[in-house]
Amino acid sequence: MTGIGPARVVGPVDSTSAGPAPAPAPAAYPLPAPDDDRRFTFGLVLDVATALEAHGYPPVASGPDLLNLQQALFRFLYTLDVTR
Q1: CA 29, CA 76: separation in Å to the nearest integer?
Q2: What is the residue-level pLDDT of the chain in tens, covering all 84 positions?
C-alpha cells in the first residue's frame, strides 16, 4: 500500500464566476529571417523528420520530401517581411 488515498471527484467548474478569459499569448513565430542562423541545419530537418516518423507519419526519406520539409520549416520559423 502506498498510502495514497482514493481519487477525489471534482464537480463542474462554474465558469461564470471565473471572470474573463486571459488573452492568448502573442505568437512567437515567425521570427525575422537572419542573414545566417547556425541553428537552421540539415540536422534540424532530419530531427523533425524523425519526430514525424515517431508520431506515426511515413518516413521522410526522399530528396524532394526532405527539401519540402526544409522549406516548410523555414516558412514556419522565419519571415522575410521586414515590417514585422
Answers
A1: 7
A2: 455 555 565 566 555 667 788 999 999 999 999 999 999 999 999 999 999 999 999 999 999 999 999 999 999 999 998 775
